[in-house]
Amino acid sequence: MLKKEIIILGILIALILPITLSNKPVNSPGYVQGESTEVSDDITEDTTWYLAGSPYILVKDIKVYTAALLTIEPGVVVKFANGTELYVAGGLKARGNTTHPITFTSNFTTPTPGIWDSVIFDGIKEFVIDYVLIEYASIGIKLVSVANISNSVISNCNTGVQGKLNYANNLTATDNTSNGLSITSSLRIENSNASHNDGHGITVTATIDMNNCTVSNNNKTGVVLSNGGYIQNSCIIGNSGNGTSIFGPTTIKNSTISDNGGDGIWARSGISITECTIIGNKGNGVKSNFVDEKATIKYSTISSNGGDGISTNASLEIERCDISYNNGNGVIVHNNVNMSVSASNIQNNTLTGLSGRGHVSYSNVSGNSGCGIMGNFTVESFTNITWNQGGGFNGTGRIFRSSIFNNTPYDAIADIW
């Protein structure tokens, strides 16, 4: 009798023991018992990668089929073998949190940028990237379909994000070997950072709506806009190229554009600049070339740039600005188009204060190393032209209800009526 009981007990142990030792997560294909979960099968049905099975190691390209949604728990680490990708034709929900972000990284012990391929979204279901770290990919996230990203960091890839990014909030793209963001759709981005990338910080081929962002210390231009848009409450600083290169109508408001290696704002389109600080750029503060549309600059400081404060061949309106200490002209307008300057200080620039033609009122043009005003101008309404070292006024036009004094070597050489 005892022998029979022992046999029965042995059978029960044999049945129970594998269940006890197996911690296999439900719906995790390719699971291998141990410290990690090896993923070698495509995902054809709704699947969850649980924290208990982390890290998940992709040993080959993995496809999430159109019928499937892959959900990844907070804190999970996903590792990619060299050259592999996660292709999402269905959906992906990777939602971490502040204490347990999700990580996509290389499975190589000493990874370098581009060692694995990408997370590619070409899907028909939801795509959620929230509190996610992506590193060492060729393209961190490649968006063939439109998607949003929030609260995430993409670093040490070749390109951070490429494709149809619709909305980004609290996104950081940093230390990538090419562009931080290369976007082909209209983009709304806020509270985000693109910095220390070896290419441009942000490029957008459609339009941008950027608010409260920092684009800094990129090895090329900070922001490249093929079709313009809206930038506000942002800092574009320390980039090796231009602060911005703009090819479509753009409004920039309440932003700082400083210490860039080229022009602060370079535009080949109409621009509106309000309440901005544009200082310390190695090129011009604002340069607008081959443009038919008007440039409007109000309530802004354009100072201490390595070239002209403003150089344009478009019609120009300046109101309540301080344009000073630039290592070129304060303002120069080419191609015989008009400028309007009101209630502004144009002072202490290395060359001419104002050069071109137009109308000046309620302004102070003083202390410039070249001529105060040169060209064809109407100067009126209590404008002061003083202490300029290359003469006060040289040109043609009309001056009334204004003061011209203490300029060297002359106050006016002009055909004035």
N-end to C-end Cα span: 129 Å
Strand segment tally: 45
Low-confidence stretches: 1-34
Largest sheet properties: 18 strands, parallel, barrel
**Average of pLDDT:** 92
Instruction: Name the helicity range.
Output: under 10%
Overall shape: it is elongated
**How large is the share of residues in beta strands?**
over 45%
Counted by DSSP, the helix tally is 1
Radius of gyration: 30 Å
Secondary-structure-derived class: mainly beta
Notable traits:
single chain, elongated, 48% strand, disordered N terminus, 417 residues, 45 strands, mainly beta, 18-stranded parallel barrel
In short:
The chain is mainly beta and 417 residues long.
Write the layout of secondary structure elements.
Blueprint: H1 2-21, E1 37-39, E2 47-49, E3 56-58, E4 62-64, E5 69-72, E6 77-80, E7 86-88, E8 91-95, E9 102-106, E10 116-121, E11 127-130, E12 132-135, E13 137-155, E14 159-174, E15 181-183, E16 187-190, E17 193-195, E18 202-204, E19 208-211, E20 214-216, E21 223-225, E22 229-232, E23 235-237, E24 244-246, E25 250-253, E26 256-258, E27 265-267, E28 271-274, E29 277-279, E30 286-288, E31 295-298, E32 301-303, E33 310-312, E34 316-319, E35 322-324, E36 331-333, E37 339-342, E38 345-347, E39 354-361, E40 364-366, E41 373-380, E42 384-386, E43 393-399, E44 403-405, E45 412-416
Parallel strand pairs: 1-3, 2-5, 3-6, 4-7, 5-8, 6-9, 7-10, 8-11, 9-12, 10-13, 11-13, 12-13, 13-14, 14-15, 14-16, 14-17, 15-18, 16-19, 17-20, 18-21, 19-22, 20-23, 21-24, 22-25, 23-26, 24-27, 25-28, 26-29, 27-30, 28-31, 29-32, 30-33, 31-34, 32-35, 33-36, 34-37, 35-38, 36-39, 37-39, 38-40, ...
